[in-house]
Amino acid sequence: KLKELSLATRRWTCPHCGAQHDRDLNASLNIKQEGIRMLKAAGLTVLRS
Predict the structure, then answer these.
(1) 45 φ/ψ angles, rounded to the nearest 5 degrees
(2) Per residue in 1-29, pLDDT tens?
(3) Which residue ranges make up each domain of the chain?
């Protein structure tokens, strides 16, 4: 596990595999996935666009 990153750190590189991560992109994907989960839980069909 990584040490704690400051909130000002928007991008970081994994010291283990070298993968580059963007905090804002990751947050947007998490929000999208949670919205899809909530819609499905309400019985709605979610189509990919």
Answers:
(1) -90, 130
(2) 667 889 999 999 998 999 999 999 999 99
(3) 11-40
Taking the C-alpha atoms of residue 21 and residue 11, their distance in angstroms, rounded to an integer, is 6
Looking at this protein, which amino acid is placed at residue 34? E
Q: Are 11 and 20 contacting, i.e. CB atoms less than 8 angstroms apart?
A: yes
pLDDT value, residue 1: 64
Tokens coding 45: 């069909």
Please tell me the predicted confidence (pLDDT) of residue 3: 77
The single-letter code of the amino acid at 7 is: L
The residue with tokens 């069909």 is 45
- What residue has token string 């994994």? 14
